[in-house]
Design brief:
Blueprint lengths: L2 H7 L1 E5 L5 E7 H7 L3 E12 L2 E9 L10 E2 L2 E4 L6 H13 L9 E14 L2 E15 L14 E8 H10 L24 H15 L10 E3 L5
Parallel strand pairs: 3-8, 7-10
Antiparallel strand pairs: 1-2, 3-4, 3-6, 4-5, 4-9, 7-8
Helix pairs in contact: 4-5
Length: 226
């Protein structure tokens, strides 16, 4: 069975706008076909090295159904039924990057409501996500992460200012199956929502400077995520 078919059968909790489970579970495929609200967790990894603030981006595998060869969030995933935001985020970190983090290592940035309506593999695709956004501090070199080769081709540290410039000056890709062509004029292929990386960066810089970070919540448009 293909990974895509496995994912379509993965059970997710239906949730309200606050991310609280309603008690109903649906397959991932049903959630996306019918637009049933579900949860995801995103973790952005930062470090300050040699006086430079840096952010770790993953590069999605060329074999991915959505956003192949695009730079993406450090670690992200849908939350399986029965798990909470942090529990799932820690699981994804370990599976994707080999990072054994603790709950207290995850710093909450905010909760966002993502909506996307389009097509995926020629079928209607309705993605309604409540996403918890976290950041993690980890100063290891990129080659020290144990990446999940079926999902990622590499991870790379970017200067934070460089990353923000690249994300804001290159279009966010929209997935339409493996045959999707990159957006015209895209010099840096990514599937990052600019407002989200801005939020995570601001939270990290406030943390580094010793000021409290504030959780925020706002709607955004996004394509199908990992």
């Amino acid at each position: 069975m293909s990974r895509r078919n496995d994912e379509k059968k993965e059970l997710l909790d239906e949730v309200d706008l606050e991310g609280r489970p309603t008690g109903r579970t649906v397959s991932r495929g049903t959630a996306h076909r019918e637009g049933i609200r579900h949860r995801t967790a995103h973790v952005w990894i930062f470090r300050t090295a040699g006086g430079r603030d840096e952010i770790l981006l993953q590069k999605r595998s060329a074999a991915k159904d959505s956003f192949p060869n695009c730079y993406d969030i450090s670690s992200a995933g849908h939350i399986p039924a029965g798990l909470d935001f942090k529990e799932s985020a820690l699981k994804e970190l370990h599976e994707e990057l080999g990072v054994a983090a603790r709950p207290q290592d995850l710093h909450f940035c905010g909760r966002r409501h993502f909506l996307y309506n389009g097509e995926f593999y020629g079928e209607p695709f309705h993605d309604d996500q409540v996403t918890a956004i976290f950041f993690l501090v980890d100063d290891r070199p990129a080659e020290a992460f144990r990446i999940q080769r079926s999902e990622l081709s590499e991870v790379r540290w970017f200067g934070l200012d460089e990353c923000l410039h690249l994300v804001h000056t290159n279009p966010t890709q929209q997935a339409d199956g493996v045959s999707a062509a990159p957006a015209a004029g895209a010099g840096f292929l990514h599937c990052i929502i600019p407002e989200e990386v801005d939020l995570a960066a601001q939270c990290y810089l406030r943390y580094k400077n010793g000021t409290a970070d504030d959780g925020t919540e706002s709607p955004a448009e996004a394509g199908p995520q990992s």
